[in-house]
Write a structure and sequence with these properties.
about 325 residues; alpha/beta; Rossmann fold; 2 domains; nine-stranded mixed β-sheet; four-stranded parallel β-sheet; 11 helices; 13 strands; about 35% helix; globular; P-loop_NTPase; lipid metabolism; lipid a biosynthesis; LpxK; ATP-binding
């Protein structure tokens, strides 16, 4: 996936010229999404929670999926995760085996998720949910798929990066939206906004009036692993939706960030790229570091040569989420 153009994330009340010119194509894209969503889908026999978003690219769905999986597991439920396996070659449905599969086969996010709960990749999401049901799942977390009609979820979560919000409020290619905000939120049950206090305030100021659903807020925090980042000279690289957020986290931890290499989301980590970055790091007396998701795509012989910063979503107030889960008997 290529990097999103900057004008996608200008303020909704002051769209860039490119956004205005591309607006008619955005209307056509929205109409296509609406037509697709009218198609019939599979109604599962167990609760299915769709963790999706309205913007193209990442918004924090994987941290939300992990937090939900841990919450449900702690309550004694047999949780399975189903993903399309973006970037993977296997059509599935196939259960991801962390020790057997590679990111090139199943995608980086499913490989990461499989360490926490049984995870299935399936280009046909309905077939993936059916495979999970047959394997004994009591509840399925559907990673992405909010605009895919093949499965009828029991609960729909819209995840949003609080700092970016819904961008300029326009649909692809005029903006980052897969469908208009009000249309998407009408099908959702909760909104989960991820970001620090400043980003949350900005999101509330820009988009708060559009949200009538329960709003759950959370923040990504580095996992305490005993690693002291203070003063560490680092050369960071990341192929996530917003690499700068990762670079900022490292600086906030006190690291001396020599440089950050922003890659496209899910970008392949080739031998040529890694050798170039390693040579640059060595010349600067720095250590390579990347995200947990990117680390899943590293070739095995590189994993001991690159540090990994692990973050987890912390939700202070689970009241609205727990109430929604209770309605499903969870």
């Amino acid at each position: 996936m290529t990097r999103a153009p900057g004008f996608w994330f200008t303020k909704p009340d002051s769209p860039a010229v490119a956004a205005r010119l591309l607006a008619p194509l955005g209307w056509l894209y929205a109409a296509g999404t609406a037509r697709r969503l009218h198609q019939p889908g599979y109604t599962p026999r167990i609760p299915v929670i769709c963790v999706g978003n309205l913007v193209a690219g990442g918004a924090g769905k994987t941290p939300v999926t992990l937090a939900l999986a841990e919450r449900l597991l702690s309550h004694g439920h047999a949780v399975h995760i189903v993903s399309r396996g973006y970037g993977g070659s296997l059509a599935g449905p196939v259960q991801v085996r962390e020790t057997h599969h590679k990111a090139a086969e199943v995608g980086d996010e499913p490989l990461l998720l499989s360490a926490f709960a049984p995870t299935w990749v399936a280009k046909d999401r309905a077939a993936g949910v059916q495979a999970a049901e047959a394997a004994g799942a009591q509840v399925v977390l559907l990673d992405d798929g909010f605009q895919n009609p093949s499965v009828k979820p029991s609960l729909g979560l819209v995840v949003v990066d609080a700092a970016r919000g819904f961008g300029n409020g326009r649909c692809i290619p005029a903006g980052p939206l897969r469908e208009p905000v009000q249309v998407g939120l009408a099908r959702a049950d909760l909104v989960v906004a991820i970001g620090g206090p400043g980003a949350q305030a900005q999101f509330a100021d820009t988009w708060g009036r559009h949200i009538t659903l329960p709003l759950v807020t959370g923040e990504l925090h580095p996992l305490q692993t005993g690693m002291d980042w203070q003063g560490q000279r680092l050369l960071a690289f990341a192929g996530i939706a917003d690499p700068n957020r990762f670079f900022t986290t490292l600086r906030d931890l006190g690291a001396n960030l020599v440089r950050g290499e922003a890659l496209a989301d899910h970008a392949p980590l080739s031998e040529t790229l890694l050798k170039r970055l390693e040579a640059e790091a060595m010349a600067a007396g720095a250590q390579l570091v990347t995200t947990e998701k990117d680390a899943a795509r590293l070739p095995p012989h590189w994993r001991m040569r690159v540090l990994t910063l692990v973050v987890r979503l912390q939700i202070k107030d689970w009241t609205a989420m727990d109430a929604a889960l209770a309605r499903l008997g969870l």
